[in-house]
Design a protein that fits this description.
The complex is a heterodimer of chains A (about 375) and B (about 250). Chain A has about 375 residues and is mainly alpha-helical. Helix content of chain A is about 75%, strand content about 0%. Chain A has 15 helices and four strands. In chain A, the strands form two sheets. A two-stranded antiparallel ribbon of chain A has the order 1-4. In chain A, strands 2-3 form a two-stranded antiparallel ribbon. In chain A, helix 5 crosses helix 12 and helix 13 packs parallel to helix 15. Chain A is globular, with a radius of gyration of 24 Å. Chain B has a six-stranded mixed sheet, with helices on both faces. Chain B is globular. The longest helix of chain B is centred in the last third of the chain and has 16 residues. Chain B has two domains: about 160 residues, Rossmann fold (3-Layer(aba) Sandwich); about 70 residues, no CATH class. Chain B is an alpha/beta fold. In chain B, a hairpin with a 2-residue loop joins strand 1 and strand 2. Classes of the chains: A mainly alpha (about 375), B alpha/beta (about 250).
């Protein structure tokens, strides 16, 4: 993790960081390669030492660049593997059995599907705290349309449209009225939760009759009797968001807006539209995740989405996305979700009480956000 | 004379402040115009109207004889108006190629990025146009790690790449070392040789005088006077500018 944001100076590599480890491993592999090659060639010609040095430098330069570019991702993968190993050693009976992974794949996608697009909002320098309520308002539309029309496909489409529009409204409030997104989305979070409570009167709605439909099978069925369909959806969302962020003009603008809004504006980037669309996509994903979570338990509870706020945000920040904007990766968030999702089960399995999970979540958010602040200041000075 | 840019009776207010009052300003084809004046004279406002960032309250803007209305930054760049801001117009946490193509990414019809194309172009530009050979200035390098001169080079290359007709240089020598400044002034002369036009804004009258064909002096939102550099000595110009700042009149 020490290597932090996508491109830092190579000087900051500390011993024992995963990035350094990988660095050393690759270097070892390469140097043994060189020795082999040299051995074969020895008979024909002796390599000029200057060439050898420059080649070594080249390797070193490439490695440094590689570490700088992917340091963030290498770091998070390292943290993930270390934690996994720790849990396997601490609770082998739990973590070597397939059941726990089935459980992870069924629950983690609910917030992973929101954390992935939320990464784009945070890279753009904004934040959204209202997605938990958007989950509920989306499903509220679904459970009102579907019984009346008998058409779950229509209800599903309207759920997605509602999510998109509610998200877009967040964007409009932030962009057009110039209200900081932190404040705006606290407001909309309460507002939409209130709408759900007022409309339902607090009564849950049953989704049991949907069992056995294609919708239920496609969204929360079990593939080969084991892999939850929502896991497949989480992967699809990850791929789509990755392509959007890294291979589409929209994503390029997301990074520019979060990095330096003024310069993006001076260079003709449509800053307002970019931010509004980012909010709308989070809304769309939240409504979808809300339906998944409700179908999984066959009921729509009016408090749907409460309790997702902390772990979703923690996943994004743990994944290396900077709270100041401009930096972040989809792979980081995806793995961050699994780390956050595993902490709860893991702490209990290794014998700590469940009370520890909140403490660890909190620690992770504070440490990862502080780390980015330090790295960013260091970069600004260099 | 053919004008590439003509601005007639431009006025712009920000609340109580009259940033520009009935300004007439023009740039001829293949002319380098120096725009000088004290802080708050309205230089930046005038420039930002040309680049589509601000809309004038009244007045007309013509580019290549064509009247411009409701101009956006993206449209201005499409027309061939590029601006070299100081390093402040770079995204410091992003890679070089993303900065070069900021706001004008190479994409397919559906908006998907041509990442390899942009990286290759960036590599070519850096070696070809700017003569950067330092390994640190690679397409994938993060711009925040560059020196001030390198950052300025990035801004310039960015303006040049898109075949600009009119290149606006907004205080480009600020923060540059002596040798970087010299290289930069050579670059401005290069703009003229290439048959393009330029507006050069700088606090340093000496820099402007050495490369501009004509110098326009702005004072408190209005044009105080203009001179062909061949008709005036540097000393006379500085004398007049000093008088304008003191009294609001040239003579």
């Amino acid at each position: 993790m020490e290597q932090g944001t996508g491109g830092q100076r190579s000087g900051g590599v500390r011993p024992c960081s995963p990035a350094t480890l990988l660095h050393v491993i690759i270097q070892l592999m390469c140097s043994s390669n060189n020795i082999n090659l040299g051995g074969k060639k020895m008979t024909s010609r002796v390599e000029d030492p200057a060439v050898a040095i420059s080649r070594r430098r080249l390797w070193h330069g490439d490695l440094a660049r590689f570490a700088r570019r992917y340091g963030l991702q290498i770091g998070i993968v390292g943290v993930f593997l270390a934690m996994w190993a720790f849990f396997i050693i601490g609770a082998p009976r739990t973590f070597l059995a397939p059941e726990i992974y089935g459980a992870f794949m069924s629950t983690i996608p609910f917030f992973a599907i929101m954390a992935l697009p939320l990464t784009m909002v945070i890279i753009a320098g904004e934040i959204d705290l209202s997605f938990g309520s958007i989950m509920a308002i989306g499903v509220l539309v679904f459970v009102n349309v579907w019984p009346r029309t008998g058409n779950w496909a229509l209800a599903f489409v309207l759920l997605l449209v509602t999510g998109f529009l509610v998200g877009l409204l967040n964007g409009i409030i932030v962009v057009k009225f110039g209200i900081p997104s932190l404040v705006a989305t606290i407001g909309t979070q309460f507002f939409w939760r209130g709408v759900v409570l007022v409309v339902t009167g607090g009564r849950p709605a049953s989704l049991v009759p949907l069992k056995g439909t294609i919708l239920h099978q496609a969204l929360v069925g079990r593939l080969a009797g084991y892999v939850p369909a929502q896991m497949i959806w989480a992967i699809i969302v990850a791929v789509v968001v990755w392509v959007l962020l890294n291979r589409h003009r929209f994503g390029a603008h997301v990074y520019l807006v979060g990095d330096n809004r003024d310069s993006a504006m001076l260079m003709g980037v449509n800053v307002d539209r970019t931010r509004m669309i980012a909010f709308a996509i989070v809304g769309l994903a939240a409504a979808f995740a809300g339906l998944l979570a409700s179908l999984e338990v066959n009921y729509f509870w009016v408090n749907l989405g409460e309790g997702y706020l902390l772990r979703t945000l923690a996943s994004v920040f743990l994944g290396g996305t900077s709270v100041f904007g401009g930096v972040g990766t989809i792979l980081g968030t995806f793995i961050g979700c699994f780390i956050i999702g595993a902490i709860e089960a893991g702490t209990v399995a290794i014998g700590l009480s469940g009370f520890w999970t909140q403490l660890i979540y909190g620690l992770i958010i504070v440490v990862s956000v502080s780390m980015h602040s330090v790295l960013r200041r260091r970069l600004a000075r260099s | 004379m053919d004008y590439i840019l003509e601005m007639r009776n431009i006025s712009k207010r920000f609340g109580e402040v009259n940033a520009l009052r009935q300004v007439n300003f023009a740039v001829a084809c293949n002319e380098v115009v120096g725009l000088v004046g004290d802080n708050g004279a309205g230089k930046s406002t005038l420039i930002k109207i040309v680049t589509g960032y601000h809309t004038p309250d009244s007045g007309e803007v013509y580019f290549n004889g064509q009247k411009l209305e409701g101009l956006s930054v993206a449209e201005a760049r499409q027309l061939g108006i590029e601006t070299v801001y100081q390093e402040r117009a770079l995204a410091n946490l992003q890679t070089l190629w993303r900065n070069i193509f900021m706001g004008r990414e190479l994409t397919t019809h559906l908006g998907f990025l041509d990442v390899n194309g942009m990286k290759q172009e960036t590599e070519k530009l850096m070696i070809g146009s700017m003569g950067f050979t330092s390994a640190a200035v690679a397409p994938d390098a993060v711009v925040g790690t560059f020196s001030g001169g390198e950052k300025q080079g990035v801004s310039i290359v960015r303006a040049l790449y898109f075949n600009a007709e009119l290149i606006i240089l907004d205080e480009p020598t600020m923060g540059l070392s002596l040798s970087e400044t010299r290289k930069f002034l050579e670059f401005v002369q290069g703009i003229k040789k290439a048959g393009k036009s330029s507006i050069f804004i700088d606090h340093n009258v000496f820099h402007v005088y050495s490369v501009a064909d004509r110098i326009v002096v702005l004072d408190r939102g209005a044009v105080a006077g203009e001179f062909l550099t061949k008709d005036i000595t540097l000393d006379e110009l500085m004398e007049k500018m000093y008088r304008v700042a003191q009294t609001g009149s040239l003579d």
